[in-house]
Amino acid sequence: MPSQPPVRPLPAALRLLHALAINPVGRIALSSLAGTLLFLSCADFDIWPLCWVGMVPLLAVLLDGDGSPRGGHAFLWGWLCGLLANGGGFYWIVGLLQRFGHMPLVAALPIFVLLIAYQAITFGFFAWSLCRLRTHLNIPVTWLAPLCWTACELCVPYVFPWYLAITQAWVPPVIQIADITGPLGVSFLLVLANGALFDLGCALWRARGWPERRALRAPGLAVLVILACLGYGLVRIQQVQGARAAAPKIRVGVVQANIGIHEKFVPGLREEQAAVHQRLSAALEQRGAELIVWPESSYPFPLRRPVVADFPEDDPRRVRRGFSTPLLFGALTYDVSGPRAVPYNTALMMDRDGRITGTFDKNFLLIFGEYIPYAEHMGWLRELVPEMSNFARGTTTTTFPLLHQGQTYRIGPMICYEDIIPAFARRLFDTQTPPNLLINITNDAWFGATSEPWEHLALSVFRAVEHRVDLVRAVNTGVSAFIDATGRVYQAGPSVDPVVTPGVAPTTLLEEAALLPPGGLYQRLGESFGGGCLAVVLLLGAVARWRGDRPVRWRWLLGGLVALHLSLLLLAVLIPGIDVKVLYAVLAHRGEEALAEEAVFRATWQLGLLLITLSAALGAVVCSRAAGEPAEPHHVPGRLETLLAVLGVTIAPVLLVGRMEGNTGEVMLLTLLCLAASQIAGLLARRVARVRSRQTGAPR
Q1: Do 445 and 323 belong together in one domain?
Q2: What is the pLDDT of residue 628?
Q3: Reduced to 3 states, what is the DSSP secondary structure of residue 292?
Q4: Count of Cβ atoms closer than 10 Å to residue 314 Cβ
Q5: Final residue before a domain boundary, out of 219, 240, 261
Q6: Residue where a domain stops, chosen among 206, 240, 274
Q7: C-alpha angle 466/469/473, rounded to 5°?
Q8: Do residues 248 and 514 make contact, with C-beta atoms less than 8 angstroms apart?
């Protein structure tokens, strides 16, 4: 008889994972460990290799040694992991609310918990979808996990946008595929590695020795995919570096004045703050700067629109004094043409002759930090939190002309958080005059010397890779930086906190930046990669339900979707006082910025009331029809179809034809209210129908 292969002892790590995963307390520990490893891999902890293994503990909680789901509560375990991951990454929210919102700790903590609890939903949906699909589909976790994660990362909008790819911002070979896939491709690779490690561990567990070759196929193929992407990254780095070497260069000087947030715009300090920027700029000019950049809202005097040129030499408001280099700077501008002055957060470009050659108003405003939604109609909110600003939103993107060495190039301005939003950058490049250089002006003094400025920098790196142009960042208290078209940060300033360490000396940076023609397929492909992953997950979900004898009732789903849309349209037409065009602009978040605020406010609450009512009606109708079918702990007939129909009205229009920029809170709030209404109404209708059935003696 052939001898049996010797049974080898399992690695201690696998035995420990198994022991913890079968114990409730151990599951809590493993889920928390996964979240901790993930936030430690982010800036500015920067232990980036942890993200390549950080999800394995969570996978061990969700799935057993055969890759089968361990039982219920998958969403809860994923959500717990996300709670830790977001809590460690966004800890600075508490200090922000205390220091600048003047909130006591007892008020700041609940807001912080609410924020991270919401952003942890991505992890919950990931865990739930992975387990539901694995229940009926024998697809290796190696591939199923990254598909589910990418779909969730695409669909769940955040208050503070981020993606798992942020952990690899300082590893250029890994992030080069972002010029095709965007950050979602990098996130896919990270979860792919975690899934492969989990499948390898399962294979070792089952074999109690060296596993069969068949069990190694998925992890082995994953290794090949990762190596291929790294190879692509190395090749692209060489190509882009060659293009940069041949491209014209411009010496850019950055002023980081390190002015505390409470010192800005104080009347008695304006002249001194202007003098600091001017003195540092003059020194940069002497060192050879050909373009100088000041941070967001760095010019301390308000400017009346339109701004056409610099002030006279004897005017204390003069922008440039002691230097003549072209200047890009941030200022607060005011439109006084109406009954009241309307403020804008503006970037302005001044040429060598002192003329303003371009202005750009910030499109993406930070909710409650820079604007109060419909402040004109909710004055009580301003009284509750008087520190809130209320800027007007810019509605278009633009590029600034820059004459350099006899040729005109274009600069793409981005203000504050606009450099972390992939969709905004794509819109900036979607023009007849796309930028040859990106410049972000920011004021991160709100956050102090926490990890936030470094997280902001890490997220911005991907804009350079996606469009293959250099990016220069001028940040009031840091981190100012130069990023090349490969995503490499080749010079960076410090991150300081003038509140904690007053009197911090200003910082200047001076480096060459390349003026490159934009490239990368991402500009044209957009989120096609993420959309493809989502389509595959939805298809697999339909197959899984069919195999589980719970096929999707497409008639209910499509009928509910059509009924919601037609009912909304019919009510909008029939009810007096509803502007159908404005209503649908608000629904799809497309073109609403060009409408009057009063009209948008009215359409928003009208849309909310209509959709919540219609969602409740749909839930009641569908679930009452399915009342005769038995419900199971994780399956209530008609619930999935109702959920998908509601999502098809609240989120699908924004993803398909609108813009998910700065409106994520509004979209998600409306969606959650509609989902809650549909589920509550469906539950009540199901109970009523079953009671009537028992009273009439009809078969259940």
Answers
A1: yes
A2: 63
A3: strand
A4: 6
A5: 240
A6: 240
A7: 100
A8: yes
Instruction: Write out pLDDT tens, residues 340-384.
Output: 888 999 999 999 999 999 999 998 887 666 666 555 545 555 555
Could you give the number of structural domains in the chain? 3
User: Residues 496, 408: one domain?
Assistant: yes
pLDDT at 265: 72
Its domain, for residue 297, covers 248-364+398-515
Which helix (H) or strand (E) element contains residue 330?
strand 327-335
Residue 209 is predicted with a pLDDT of 65
Q: Count other Cβ atoms within 10 Å, centred on residue 8.
A: 11
**One domain, residues 574 and 501:** no
pLDDT given at position 242: 97
Inside any domain, residue 426: yes
Contact 236, 176 (CB under 8 A): yes
User: Do residues 149 and 293 both lie within one domain?
Assistant: no
CA distance 109 to 17: 33
* Rounded distance between C-alpha atoms, residue 179 and residue 466, angstroms: 4
Clarify whether residues 210 and 281 are in a common domain. Answer: no
Label the pairing between strands 400-404 and 342-350: unpaired
- 583 and 440 inside one domain: no
Query: In b/e form, how buried is each residue of 228-242, taking b as 16+ CB within 10 angstroms?
Result: ebbeebeebbeebee
Contacts of 404 (CB under 8 A, 6+ apart): 248, 250, 290, 515
Contacts of 378 (CB under 8 A, 6+ apart): 372
Q: Indicate whether 372 belongs to any domain.
A: no
- If asked whether residues 24 and 171 sit together in one domain, one would say yes
Bridge partners (DSSP) of residue 293 are: 254, 328
Q: Which of 261-265, 502-506, 680-684 is predicted with the least confidence, judged by mean pLDDT?
A: 261-265
Can you tell me the distance from the alpha carbon of 152 to that of 538, in angstroms, rounded to the nearest whole number? Answer: 11
379: in domain: no
For the residues 254-272, what does the mean pLDDT come to? Answer: 86
Beta bridge partners of 481: 473, 492
User: CA-to-CA distance for 374 and 321, rounded, in angstroms?
Assistant: 40
- Same domain, residue pair 234 and 255: no
User: What is the C-alpha separation between 628 and 366, in angstroms, rounded?
Assistant: 49
- 614-641 pLDDT, tens digit each: 999 999 888 777 666 665 555 667 788 8
**What average pLDDT is seen over the chain?**
89
**pLDDT tens-digit profile of 1-45?**
455 555 566 677 777 887 888 888 999 999 999 999 999 999 889
Residue 114: inside a domain: yes
